[in-house]
Amino acid sequence: MTEFEYWWLLALPLFFTLGWLAARVDIKQLLSESTALPAAYFKGLNFLISDQHDKAIEAFVEAVEANAESLELHFALGSLFRRRGEVDRAINLHLSLLERRELAEPQKLAIRAELAQDYLKAGLFDRAEELFKSLDDSRYEQPALRALLEIYVREREWHKAVETATELERLSGIPFRKEIAQYHCEQAVQALLGNDRETARKHLDEALDANKNCVRANVMLGEMEALAGSHEAAIAIWKRIEFQQPDYLGLIAAKLLASYRTLNRVNEGLELLKTYLQTYKLYSLLNVLYEATIAQQDAETAARLARDELVKKPSLQTLDLLLQARLLQDEAPQDAHVIQQTVRYAIGNRSAYVCSQCGFRAKHYHWQCPACNAWESLPSEPTESVA
Known about the structure:
- The protein is mostly helical.
- Helices cover 72% and strands 2% of the residues.
- Helix 6 packs antiparallel against helix 7 (125-134).
- The termini are far apart.
């Protein structure tokens, strides 16, 4: 054991010397590479850091002219063109690179990948799709699949979107269950537009297989049963949403009550909605329940409902409901109408569904954000923004 330790003591200076020499070589290589870069490259970086993109483009153009053989500089300039929306310049830049005969195959592949991004940015989806499919190197496999998925979603080619998302999920290990379920729902919508109920039901079942918590699938299945006159079945399907994501019960509250009304069991429906309201405290449930109470019973009962909820959770929207009910009563306060108008003015357009991904504000619920295309990114209930 002692001899072994002495051997290490003798070897340590040797390892130290080798490490010092390696570091010297690395430093020399780094210095030589940095001096090989044109000064305009560093000027461009400085302009980028300070968000002076026009000057950055000028600097990178100068850098490319000074070192025309550097693909990396061309790629940096092309990326900058894309960011600035000058996609035509990016496309011309990469097409001119592809005309070089001396390029090796990996270099051509890298240029095609950049060109595919240009076409995608320009909205030339057919050309972009063709190029992304041609990137047969494993380095580009996942980025290409992500780009193809974006193309298929934007082009509403839902069958291809399902296949691509499934393959991307397999390769990356990142789940796409929510998105795949939504793609199946979109296929169901297309089938219903073609009056093909059987195919629509098949796609909705596939959506639930992909994601058991896909509320949209059960919303649509219930709607199909109600339209066919099978209101018992519709109610049973919509009740499943409580065990999926109860925050979405407000989306089907009016539909649920309409089916109960068709079955001459409206009071049963009202009691169910009251139970949901007490359990989950959703304003959309209160709104449906309030309107049904006025129509089915009387304004006093509706006012009592609104007042009870107002005590539990103060809200200008609930106060508006209370004042509305009071105005329908004979003994309404003299200034109730003026107070209600003031409350409604204060509410204004503050209530909206706000996308958690991009902040887009929508008056009505969307399963897919119209701005950033994210799925289920809008909350199930509209929120009141602070004035």
